Amino acid sequence: MKKYPVILLCVLVVFAVVFVFCSSSSSSSSQVEESEKVTESGAASSHIFTSPYIPQTVEFAGEALPIHHFDVRESLERELLVNMNFHSNTLQYLKRVTRFFPVIEPILAANNIPDDFKYLSLIESDFMNRVSPAGATGFWQFMRAAATDYKLEMTSEVDERYHLEKSTVAACQYLRDAYRQFNNWTMVAAAYNMGRAGLSTQVNRQKCNNYFDLILNEETSRYVYRIAAVKLILTDPQRYGFHVPEEEKYQPIPFTEVTISTGISDLVDFAFQHKTNYKMLKILNPWLRDNKLTNSSRKTYIIKIPAEGFRETQRTV
């Protein structure tokens, strides 16, 4: 008789184990189903990455890119993908162009240079006064030899490669000279990147004066496509996934001008005398490369003085 309680206990244990297992399986199945629902929901709401939009016609400086050629289309698509996904850089482009395009555009127009060359300046420097490892300097990235050819002053105290207006005029002169040599603006852009002599060598070697039919070095072979891609994105940013409200774009810094033909012994004191400081003076006049301007030759210089109180009205500088 004593063995029956033991048997009963064993049966109860078995039933308990089976119940727990079934409950666990049901719970796991429910969790899997819920997980699948969440995954499906997440997939539906996540960003979908697609190929970039390419218009039927793409132009640079009034010249159509032959995007019906597979290699041209793929090269343009590559640069669109790079700039669409280099978000920090492209967002800064969208913010900076409102400050600097208004300076560059009228100079290009006055010198009969197509407006699209403003994008060339942008990709050269990101609209920052950079110095490349090779020594190219300023928004237009002039090398010292080219700057000398186009009469830009370079001393220990003055470097006009940093002078936006003067360097833009010099760039226009270079571009016109290149156009006389190559007779189309796409080749002019390529020449700006690799030099007129280097491009001329390739034209003669390959018996071709068409950028899209030439084999060039890696940087130059991507150069025009990069300009075209940046132009497409900046002229229609929302199509390519960018939105910068107008109030967040950088505006031109208001200024007055002071003309001098004598030396300045201390630019810090000069700034204070004009109700600003050395930092603001150098932001508007990056071509001043020292804290003084000796000017022993008594040349005439125009120095920009930021408008009083402008820092409080700017979102950023």
Describe what you observe in this structure.
The chain has 317 residues and is mainly alpha-helical. It folds into 2 domains: 59-245, Lysozyme (Orthogonal Bundle); 255-313. It has 12 helices and 4 strands, in the order H-E-E-H-H-H-H-H-H-H-H-E-H-H-E-H. It has a two-stranded antiparallel ribbon with strand order 1-2. Strands 3-4 form a two-stranded antiparallel ribbon. Strand 1 and strand 2 (63-64) form a beta hairpin. Helix 3 (87-110) packs across helix 6 (164-182) and helix 6 (164-182) crosses helix 7 (185-194). The longest helix has 43 residues, at 3-45. Mean pLDDT is 88; it is low at 17-22 and 24-45.
The largest pleated sheet is described as: 2 strands, antiparallel
Radius of gyration: 31 Å
* Total count of helical runs of at least 4 residues: 12
CATH secondary-structure class of the largest domain: Mainly Alpha
Tell me the count of domains. Answer: 2
Total number of β-strand segments?
4
Q: Could you list the spans in which at least 5 consecutive residues all have pLDDT below 50?
A: 17-22, 24-45
Question: Helices and strands, in N-to-C order?
Answer: HEEHHHHHHHHEHHEH
What is CATH's topology name of the largest domain? Lysozyme
